[in-house]
From TrEMBL:
CDD domains: MDR1. PANTHER family: ZINC-TYPE ALCOHOL DEHYDROGENASE-LIKE PROTEIN C16A3.02C (PTHR44013:SF1). This is NAD(P)-dependent alcohol dehydrogenase. Residues 10-320 form the Enoyl reductase (ER) domain. It comes from Chamaesiphon polymorphus CCALA 037. It holds the Pfam family ADH_zinc_N_2. GO terms for molecular function: oxidoreductase activity. InterPro entries: ADH-like_N (IPR013154), Chloroplast_QOR (IPR052733), ER (IPR020843), GroES-like_sf (IPR011032), NAD(P)-bd_dom_sf (IPR036291).
Length: 324
């Protein structure tokens, strides 16, 4: 099969498309023929080792000190079940599925094996492969942080950096849970976030949400520009800051802030649960959640997709297609 590999950390030009052996599923695994995958900020960070402050050494220990331990990037996919292990009962050959491999990565290839009890779910009929491939990264992150932040119906939520992958997912899911949503983005993305359900918008180039006198029950920060020191006066008395992108100092200070005052900081990596992937499929099937696709690239131009993601200017999701 064809796969995109990298054998050293760096810019998109470290990526190569080569032939590698097609994997064979273990007894409890399904082999998925991939029709679409994504390039996310996670792929950029792991490929280039561009990590939040304080995580440089730790990231090398996790992903490989001198070179990548897992040479194939990609955390999301959508495709068809090609074959199954002898003990698999949840899926059959020909099933159309989407899946989230998470830190294991490996989705930038023509085939991927995953355990049947992993984060593999039947694809909603109303979504294309491209849309289904983009369900998980932003969606599972949003669900986990809203759960940890104890989001309640009727609460005021501000999303700082609302036009990216996680931000666009957060708008839709916060509305699903009954929140009043304010989206912070550039003027160019105002109409996008409104179309996803934002009740109010703030153009960050013209207004600083931390100085306008408004307070919010939850402030979600997927882009890492709203530390507690900056936003504490914009939180209600028992408000919660969701630091999706937190450096090591923020991660270490979060428990102390939460223990010594009524305002809370929730930080750290998002948990991955198959129940969340199933919920995203259900919401997508009902039309309540739909990933926004910014750009789509063919597989042989995946380095261009990485280059675009590297700019930090993508909106929603960037998808890569294989043979569809």
């Amino acid at each position: 099969m064809k796969a995109v590999i990298y054998t050293s950390y760096g810019a998109p030009d470290v990526l190569q498309i080569i032939e590698v052996p097609t994997p064979t599923p273990n007894d409890n695994e399904v082999l998925i023929k991939i029709h679409a995958t994504t390039v996310t900020s996670a792929d950029w960070r792991v490929r280039s080792l561009s990590m939040p402050f304080g995580f440089g050494l730790m990231s090398r220990l996790v992903f490989g000190i001198k070179k990548p331990r897992q040479p194939i990037l990609g955390t999301e996919l959508a495709g068809e079940v090609e074959s199954i292990g002898k003990n698999v009962s949840k899926f059959k050959v020909g099933d159309r599925v989407f899946a989230f491999s998470g830190p294991g990565m490996g989705c930038h290839a023509e085939y991927k094996c995953l355990p049947e009890d992993g984060m593999v779910v039947l694809k909603p009929d109303n979504l294309s492969y491209e849309e289904a491939a983009a369900l998980c990264f932003g969606g599972t992150t949003a669900l986990d942080f809203f759960r940890r932040g104890n989001l309640q119906s009727g609460e005021k939520v501000l999303i700082n950096g609302a036009s990216g992958c996680v931000g666009t997912a957060m708008i839709q899911l916060a509305k699903h849970f009954g929140a009043d949503v304010t989206a912070v983005c550039s003027a160019a993305n105002i109409e996008l976030v409104k179309s996803l359900g934002a009740d109010r918008t703030i153009d960050y180039t013209k207004e600083d949400f931390t100085t306008n006198g408004e307070t919010y029950d939850i402030i979600a920060d997927p882009v890492g520009t709203a530390p507690f020191s900056r936003v504490k006066n914009s939180l209600t008395a028992d408000g919660r800051l969701l630091q999706i992108l937190a450096g090591l100092p923020d991660l270490l200070s979060a428990p102390l802030i939460s223990m010594t005052g009524s305002k809370k900081v929730i930080a750290g990596p998002a948990a991955e649960r198959v129940e969340d992937v199933q919920l995203l499929a259900k919401l997508a099937a009902s039309g309540e959640f739909k990933p926004f696709i910014d750009r789509s690239y063919p597989f042989d131009r995946i380095a261009e997709a990485h280059s675009y993601v590297d700019t930090g200017r993508k909106r929603g999701n960037v998808v890569v297609t294989l043979g569809v």
